[in-house]
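Appendix B: complex inputs.
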Amino acid sequence: MPDSESNKTSINKLGKIGLIDLITDKSKPVNSSTLSVIGDDAAIIDSGKLLTLVSTDLLLEGIHFNLIYTPLKHLGYKAVIRAISDIYAMNGTPHQILISLGISARFSVEQIEEIYEGIYLACEKYNVDLAGGDTSSSLTGLTIGVTAVGSVEKDKTVKRSGAKPNDLICVTGDFGAAFMGLQLLERERRLFEKEKVTQPDLSGSEYAIGRQLKPEFPAEVLTELRNTDIRPTSMIDISEGLSSDLLQICKLSHTCCRIYYSKIPIDYETSKLAEEFNIDPIIPALNGGEDYELLFTIPLEAAEKIKSIQSVKLIGHMTEQGLGNFLVGDDGSEVKLSAQGWK
Amino acid sequence: MPDSESNKTSINKLGKIGLIDLITDKSKPVNSSTLSVIGDDAAIIDSGKLLTLVSTDLLLEGIHFNLIYTPLKHLGYKAVIRAISDIYAMNGTPHQILISLGISARFSVEQIEEIYEGIYLACEKYNVDLAGGDTSSSLTGLTIGVTAVGSVEKDKTVKRSGAKPNDLICVTGDFGAAFMGLQLLERERRLFEKEKVTQPDLSGSEYAIGRQLKPEFPAEVLTELRNTDIRPTSMIDISEGLSSDLLQICKLSHTCCRIYYSKIPIDYETSKLAEEFNIDPIIPALNGGEDYELLFTIPLEAAEKIKSIQSVKLIGHMTEQGLGNFLVGDDGSEVKLSAQGWK
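Resulting structure:
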């Protein structure tokens, strides 16, 4: 199928329906609720007695990814993580995703297959079915629209609006690594473009780069919370940034918050990179975004119980509305938390 | 809020969360299954005992719309029609939509509001709730990702794959008008760009232009089919083009088809415009696309019953696999039907 010259197949040659066939062939549902795969007008989902959760996201070239340093397979993987993290953040379980691709003429069929390789890999890891979508041409680079569908028991939904004063603020993982990984990749891109340095210097920063290019989601923490019988009062996935997403919970819950500088989990590699770039590591940790970790609040009474979940850290607590949102330093100094502007 | 100079508010000034607030304020659910509106990670949908249908689409600037002649309000309206038509085409009823916008810096808040005005207008007309979505910045023009969620009784789903030989091929409405409307708008755009003709000559073509810019979907036909107790064996919405979408049904149903030239419904205005552009009106009718009409097949036995639904026309019938797909002329001549290429 590939051209003899370039080993690439033009999408024109395959056509839209051929392209859909190519994608569909690999689609084998694992969830009993998935009653259809790609090919019909809409995905069919048997929701039974559960609530259905649906979330949707766009990934745009030049904004959410730069193809100079983003392998297409990783991009497909990340698109899935991005979509299913929204379902997890409602205490749900993702079951299906639908992917819409806008593809410009410079892409070959093989490249589209690479994207889907990553999509299928993430689907397999997180037990999600590719249940639909669409492809169209694009004049303006690669666009990925991804919709995730999941379910949750009726009384188990966790919204952003349920936090109460005195609730403890919990997070999984660590923060700022994806952002520092991006800074590093961007620096090497500029070096490549300006000085034609073709061998990027990424050694020692594998963790940060991995967090940027191929993030995972701590889905197992939700299971542990259920097993430990802890019901979060509010929850969100960290995509915009710890500060911005926490403030979103505060706003919708009508609370304020205090978090503690020394409690914010930051990986050694993130700190080291931040030093290299002459920035305080707390900046990427609070405002970097794309961490794909969980932020949630629990009642004060659950403070003992939560200690059994090692991957969860307490970073602060909720306060009454009107008291202001603060980052508290080791010396007791207070800095006002602010949401990032329009990115 | 608007700048004193230009009467436009920059999106930077409002911020992402401000923008979401602006959109959310107008969101008042009408469907009891809509348990959340915009603001959380995912839409929450109570599916009860029905099947959930989910479809997703991308609308990309320069491919699916040209802002030179597309009013933003119409664009929002069309995005909803495009998404819900996929739910109707499975014999379902749409209940929720989720909208993701990728917005470049040249857009003002007022322009985004215009898009949502159209979205809410269509939502109101078709009893659909805006239940979620996302906004992000874009380097590459306006991108709209739209996901529709609906439901259907378990035994009422109609897929593309159920047609049988001898089934009758039915359509609603007429074909090619949206395509000819687009040709006209494109011609006037070129005149405007090259010769600075600022007053486009669109008189007498209001129907075709309306079909292009602000399409509707014949949802009432599905109710009439239910009331008349006719269950289509296969169904699809005409978005790619009558020929391409019919061939899709044939392929998935393992049938072939014969449709009749004289039976294809074409509006007088479409024919007149086609003549002006020196093309046979059958070309836009078969391959134009964006008609947002229904194409479905019914068993031969339902031939009498279907006559009671005035807006449905019979255009041909299904044949055994291997017999070829043909457009039959008045003189009995046969032309092979072909799907459009990659657009």
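The CA atoms of residues 171 and 295 of chain B lie 5 Å apart.
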